[in-house]
Amino acid sequence: QVHLVESGGGVVQTGGSLRLSCAASGSIFNINVMGWYRQAPGKQRELVATITSSGSTNYADSVKGRFTISRDNAKNTMYLQMNSLKPEDTAVYYCNWRRPDNIGYWGQGTRVTVSS
User: Fold this and answer.
1) Helix (H, G, I), strand (E, B) or coil at 76
2) Low-confidence residues of the chain: pLDDT under 50
3) DSSP string computed for 84-102
4) Residue 107 has what pLDDT?
5) Is 16 exposed, middle or buried (0-12, 13-18, 19+ CB in 10 A)?
6) Could you tell me if 49 and 57 are in contact, meaning their C-beta atoms sit under 8 angstroms apart?
7) Are 90 and 76 in contact (CB under 8 A)?
């Protein structure tokens, strides 16, 4: 079992920055893909970015060049640096850590609001 806790959300003006954190505990030795997802009001949850155990990253087109996903293995923590935020980035952001057998674990979410 893996327990994930997100933090770092808040209210920021257009063009501002936030850094989200996802701290993990539990059986994290067998995780191969970690990612950030978001869900805006009235919309489906969508992928924002992923990072593999080897460090390969992938981003949604909407955030490329503005967001950076990273991880600190020593701290069992994953981050999402979000720059040049736009109102359309407003959403609840969730972290997900997935095992090779596709069993995934979700955090409780952290809310990001970008005001225009």
Assistant:
1) coil
2) none
3) S--GGG-EEEEEEEE-TTS
4) 97
5) middle
6) yes
7) no
